Every structure is written in C-alpha cells, then in structure tokens.
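INFO batch 0412 | record 1 of 1 | parsing
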Amino acid sequence: MSSHREAPEIAKDPVADGTDVYAFVNPVRPDRVVLIANFIPLQKPDGGPNFYEFGDDVLYEIHVANKGTAESDIRYQFRFSTKVRNPRTFLYNTGPITDIADETWNRPQTYTITRIKDGKTQVIGRDLPCPPVNVGPRSTPDYAKLSRQATHDLAGGRKVYAGQRADAFHVDLGSVFDLGALRPFNEAHLISMPNMGGVNSVQSYNVHTIALQVPIRELTRDRSKPTDPLDPKAVVGVWATASRRKGRVWNAKQGRYVDNGPWVQVSRLGNPLFNEVIVPMAEKDAWNAAPPKADRRYAKYVDRPELAGLLPALYPGVFPNLAAYDKPRADLNAILLTGIPEGVVPGFQNYTGPTPADMLRLNLAVPPTPVAEQNKLGLVGGDAAGFPNGRRVGDDVVTIELRAVAGLTIPLVDPSFTPDDAASAVEDGTTDTNADRPERFPFLGLPGGGYQTQPGTTQAAS
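INFO prediction complete | emitting tokens
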C-alpha cells in the first residue's frame, strides 16, 4: 500500500502511521495549494466503542522545502486534545450527534495548528473542533453537515479540515503480496492462475485526514506566485511526519501514560510506495526516523530496485528488455529523489536540486487540470498537473509506479532503451471503490459509516 503498515515498528503504532500524502494546486481555486496527510490506516468503520481518533500524544507535521536543500523550510504542526464529557459511560455518544458541539458526543477532539518558518512560530488555528467518526444513521444522521462544520476558514486565506474520511488509495494487496501477482496478468505469472479483475483491498476502510489549503505565495521562497514552469523557484517539496516524545512512563496515580523529553520522528511519508517497495525490510524503521536530506543512503535501492528484478522472474518472457537492462535507473532517481530536470519533459520540470530526497515535488506554476479532465496516469498520461508532479487524490499511483519500474520511463533519460510491450499495460486492476470524492476541499469522500458497513467474505486455504 502507499504507506499503510509499511514498516515493522510503525505497523504496531497505527495512530502515528502516515498512509498517504497529497499536494496539488486546487483546480477550483488555482491560487491555492492543497496539502493532505492521512494517518491511521485500515479503519473499519464499525470499530466501536473505542473509535479511531488522532493521538493527543503525537505531533503531526506537514513539511515544505522551497530552497532546494531538501530541508524543512516551512512546517505546519498539528496537536490534538481529547476530553471525555461523561466518565460514567462506555458510550462514544449518548444520543444522536446532529451538531459538532452536541453534548451527546462523549469524546470530542480539538486541535491547534502552528506554522513555523525561519525560526518564527505562529499559531494559525486554535481549539478547532474535529468531527466525530461516522458511527451510523442514528448516531450521526447528517454526517455531511458535521463535515462542513469541521471545515474551518482561517486567516490569510487558509482552510483546514482534520477528521475521518474515506480512504481514496486503492491497491490489490491480497494479490501483490501473494508472490508479486497482478490479477489481470495471472496467466503470465510463474505460478499461473486465470486472469481476473483486481480487488481493492482498501474497500470500505477509512483514514484520518489532515487537509490544509494555503495561498501559493505562502509556500514559495520569495512569496511570489510563479507563472513560468521552468522557474526553479516554482518547485516545492512536500512530506509529512509523525513524532512521539522520547520517554513514556505509566503513571499509576493518574491512570495514564505520561510522555516527556524531545520529540522523536517515528513516521515519514513523501512519495507513495517508497518505503513500501523500495527500502529493504531491515532498513524501513530507520528510514521512518530519518529526514529526507539523509536519503542518499537509499539511492542504491532506487538505482536497482528489487521489484524491477522480480518482474522478469515472476513473469517469464514478458519483460526481456527490462531483464537485460543493467544501468542504474536514472529515470527513477529523477522521479523519486531529485525531481525531473528541465529538458526531459518538454516545458516541464520539478527539480529540487542534487540532494537525493524522498519528497513529493510540486511545480506551482503548472496550471491545475479541471477535475473532470484529469488523467489518472498524471504526467505519464500527458497531464503535467498530476503525479509525479505533486499528487492528486485521483492519481493512480500504483499503476504509474508499476509502469515506471517496469521500464516505461527509461527512454526519458536513455533513448537507446525500448520498453517491453507489457510496460505500458501493467497494472493491478483496481480503482477507488470507496465513497464518491468531492471536487472541492477537502477532496476526500465522506467516511463509511459503522452501521452501513457490511463485512466481506473470506476463504480458507483450499
């Protein structure tokens, strides 16, 4: 998955586990940038009575680099606070929640946003209410209203939402991790099975979303609104992190854990699937704790990704050209670690400098594509406003990255290479089958409700 349970240690700490990061120019407000960081993977909507929520003991951050050094030049910090209104009940809500301020919601959560730039700290939102989770039609009969009430306009043309949404990421986990199988190409697999459509393993699951919209001028190094895509100052890098205090002790008198010491990063996410399928298992936890500017140590795995070697082995005779290619993958280095320099794609670049760093790279001067006209394959599909130029909610990043690893993008940097025919067709065969996505902020669909959820079926080993 993009980053759902992508490393051994963070898989044990889902409240701090980042799942997806998105960064794009708002197609409805082209003078605004939307930054989205999702956390807490694979939420079953009916998971009560202790429903999912942000961690009061976690520091959530969205980082922006705008000076070409892969360092955090602007940080948006989110701290959450939860209270229990009625300590004598086990219930999440004691009646219908028809308003975000209703006393029937027994566990309300609020948050504060702090912006840090050049060592200066500014609180840009204080005590902002989150919505409850979508419990069901009796408990949260008008969830759309609660969602609207939890969308806050802030000073400076900013807008924010923090709360549960439907997970828009889609992938066939059941197939991919069953020895690298892709159901649409089952017959060609080393262990052949009948071809079939992909199965979205994230169907019906929710996430917790932090969505922030800010003016473009707030993110550029000189507070300009760039118009030339070839201007180096038009490109920013974006990633998200979660941190915990270094020490944690159980306080018997208070009946809770007490944290102390400096913040320690435990989760990081920039490009989708980087830690998931590029970094070896033994180094995944260290990657989560490191800053992007230290990613030079992982460049060797981008040069020769394990998946590029597995595809010819798992699909015999399907990827002969990829199997014979023995040069370092300069195309993947450009896509994932440095950004694409000028001259590779006519009229486009999102190069952030020579420092290898896993970040989403967004060229703010590229006009956004209207939602109805967006190509889900992004840049490789001819839509320069999509991944790997930032990442929109509807971009099919699994297909894009599968095709890139399969060799489709090698000719951009090495014209002597001819991609295998399968490189332009490989996919896992899934689409976003969760709730309909809105075309406006916060761009992720309403979360699935607990009462409405119907468990799927499982099949034991035959």
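INFO post-check: The two ends are 26 Å apart (CA to CA).
INFO record closed
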